Amino acid sequence: MASMVVISTTAIPDHVGGALSRWLIEPTPGLYVGTVSARVRDELWSAVSASVGDGVAVLIHPADTEQGFAIRTAGQRRRHVVDFDGLQLIKFAAIEAEGHASGTSSAIVK
User: Fold this and answer.
1) Quick one: average pLDDT of 37-53?
2) Which CDD domains match (predicted)?
């Protein structure tokens, strides 16, 4: 059964964006939305996560969870998805100052 997927990308190679645009629409640069089967979604995500390079990508799709969706990420980002008793929350990594190691601080965003 097909379901809606949202893929947000930043600084990905052009060929990855081209592959995504074959299956999904791009209403604004780097944001891809569409309705595809789970198999197509997983194949698209495999292609994106394998070739994201220095960019970042986030996939959000319906899932049988308390929130009703799941989040997958690829690439180096300050925001990390963490599991909190079955809820996917976002944790912000601290910016390290030059020459100073800092602890990790976090904030939870809905």
Assistant:
1) 93
2) Cas2_I-E
CB 34 within 8 A of CB 47: no
Cα separations in angstroms, 59 against 20, 32, 94: 12, 9, 23
Instruction: Show the tokens assigned to 21.
Output: 């645009």
- Residue 89, SS3 per DSSP: strand
Q: How confident is the model at residue 21 (pLDDT cuts 50, 70, 90)?
A: very high
Q: Positive or negative, the Cα torsion across 68, 74, 80, 84?
A: positive
The Cα–Cα gap between 104 and 17 comes to 33
Among 10, 53, 60, residue whose Cα is nearest residue 33: 60
